[in-house]
TrEMBL record:
The keyword Metal-binding applies. Involved in the maturation of [NiFe] hydrogenases. Required for nickel insertion into the metal center of the hydrogenase. It comes from the Bacteria. This is Hydrogenase maturation factor HypA. The gene is hypA. It comes from Streptomyces siamensis.
Length: 148
């Protein structure tokens, strides 16, 4: 059984990428998503749902790469920044004040790699965002790449 939540996310991502590539006739080789650990997305379920959602589209056969973003927060009292953990702890271990969430709820399309049709099989990077802030420009064989 496919989780409905992840399937709806996968369908929305496919629709956004197809809209961005409309009229270019490009096949997508890989797609990188940045997903916060508090986004409520199960990466394995999204990976499975992505395969279903891409059937018959320009993304059919594309690799889905996922960068997981650690949830981090800042203390409203002492200013200490730290990971929240899972499940999240939203009070300061040092002073007991509440924490303001800084990151961990992301759900972003980071990069789309399309075949450019050149004889050497090169690729062109296109998409709504530039390369990830990690400075990484290579695709990894693993589906889940931690982003910290």
């Amino acid at each position: 059984m496919t989780p409905v939540h992840e399937l709806s996310i996968a369908v929305a991502v496919v629709e956004q990428v197809e809209e961005a590539l409309r009229g270019q006739g490009s096949a997508v080789e890989s797609l990188t998503l940045r997903i916060g650990e508090l986004a409520g997305v199960v990466p394995e379920a999204l990976d499975f749902s992505f395969g279903l959602a891409t059937e018959g589209t320009a993304l059919a056969g594309a690799r889905l790469l996922i960068e997981t973003v650690e949830a981090r927060a800042r203390c409203d009292g002492c200013g200490r920044e730290a990971p929240t953990g899972m499940p999240p702890v939203l009070w300061c271990a040092d002073c007991g004040s509440t924490l303001t969430l800084l990151g961990g709820r992301e759900l972003e399309i980071v990069r789309v790699v399309v075949a450019d049709g050149s004889p050497d099989g090169g690729t062109t990077h296109r998409g709504p965002r530039a390369a990830p802030a990690t400075g990484r420009t290579d695709d990894q064989e693993t589906s889940h790449v931690p982003h910290r």
